[in-house]
Amino acid sequence: MLHHEQRPKVQSKFSDDVLSLLKTVEAMGNPFLDDTEQVVALDTAVIGNASIVTTIRTAHNLGVEQFVKERLIELTIPFDHPIKRNKFPLFKQGSIRPHKAITSKLQTEG
Fold this sequence. Notes:
Blueprint: H1 8-28, E1 40-41, E2 46-47, H2 50-73, E3 97-98, H3 100-109
Antiparallel strand pairs: 1-2, 2-3
């Protein structure tokens, strides 16, 4: 019996998604080599505001502080105690605008 992700239709959809991602990265350039201060959502070509950039830069350090330091080093909070919810600004919550150069480039190639 096959796992549901091994079925041909699921594999085909996954392949299509990978090709779509590759096409987007080729059109926009490698996002990991970009030194800009802007954060762009690959799927929507939307630029995030400054608060989203701050969220991305501080999320890891806050996680280390809330979990590793408090639960494993200082032992001030029980290990299995839930981590409090952080209300970080994200793309859906932040003020965003379409990146016109990327959007038009994707439309002309698509």
